Amino acid sequence: MKRKLAYSGMVIVLIFALAFTAYKLMNARNYQLFGNITAHVETNDKVVALTFDDGPTKNTDAILSLLDDYQVKATFFLIGKDIEEQPGEAKKIAEAGHQIGNHTYSHKRMVLKSTAFIKNEIEKTDALIANIGYTKSVVVRPPYGKKLIGFPYYLNKHQRETITWNLEPDTYFTEADEKVKYVQENIQPGSIILMHPMYDSTDNELQAIEGILQAVTKEGYTFVTIDELLTFKNNQ
């Protein structure tokens, strides 16, 4: 009886250990089982990438206007179904010279999904991005940054890497000034900043973006796209 209880206890501990490991792996910003993943780039050059997730939405014009005011190019990780609904807004991003990334079609967590599902999510969105006339490199970011086995395996098989981030002001703060302060205190050469302005119904996120643009530029940094940032990585 004692032996059975001991075995049962060991099995339970093993299950919890595996679950914990899977959870940590799923949420890791700079580690995965297959292929390359980039959360930031090791470089001495004062370059950073500003990235936006989700959309496009009716907020596109305001975001593009703000970036144009500061002559900054950003990387937009767009959702396939949103591109279908707002192809004109997506086309504006491409025509403005910003980089476009693939944020999957449905924005569902890419965990415990079949290979066929993951393939369709990425390739359908790739096709929609191509349909708006974008012909440059399309980088990929998993929704919520979550991936386990299938997603990085698929990307690695197709010589593409996972792009995450190392600064996420929206996760920790609500007010614009708090977001700006967080980025200013944590910015470093090669950082990738993640923000979510597409569904914001107020001006709060735009104010945060403008504050970050001002503060980071004042610190001597230059904003680049993800593709441009990766060239600094490859030159190390």
Task: Tell me what you see in this structure.
- The protein has 236 residues and is of the alpha/beta class.
- It has one domain (32-234): Glycoside hydrolase/deacetylase (TIM Barrel), CATH 3.20.20.
- The chain is built from 10 helices and 8 strands.
- The chain has helices at residues 2-27, 60-69, 80-85, 87-95, 115-131, 150-157, 169-172, 176-186, 204-218, 226-234; strands at 37-38, 47-53, 75-78, 99-102, 139-140, 162-163, 192-195, 222-224.
- Strands 2, 3, 4, 5, 7 and 8 form a 6-stranded parallel sheet that branches. A two-stranded parallel sheet has the order 1-6.
- Helix 5 (115-131) links the parallel strand 4 (99-102) and strand 5.
- Helix 8 (176-186) packs parallel to helix 9 (204-218).
- The longest helix has 26 residues, at 2-27.
- It is globular.
- The protein starts with a helix and ends with a helix.
- The model has no long low-confidence stretch (mean pLDDT 91).
Summarize the structure.
By secondary structure, the protein is an alpha/beta fold.
CATH topology: TIM Barrel
Terminal CA distance reads: 60 Å
Count of alpha/pi helices: 10
Low-confidence stretches: none
Query: Main sheet?
Result: 6 strands, parallel
Could you spell the SSE succession in H and E letters? HEEHEHHEHEHEHHEHEH
How many distinct beta strands? 8
Name given to the CATH architecture: Alpha-Beta Barrel
CATH homologous superfamily assignment: Glycoside hydrolase/deacetylase
* Oligomer type: single chain
DSSP strand content? 5-15%
Estimated structural class: alpha/beta
| Inertia-based shape | globular
Helix content: 40-55%
Rg value: 19 Å
How many domain units?
Answer: 1
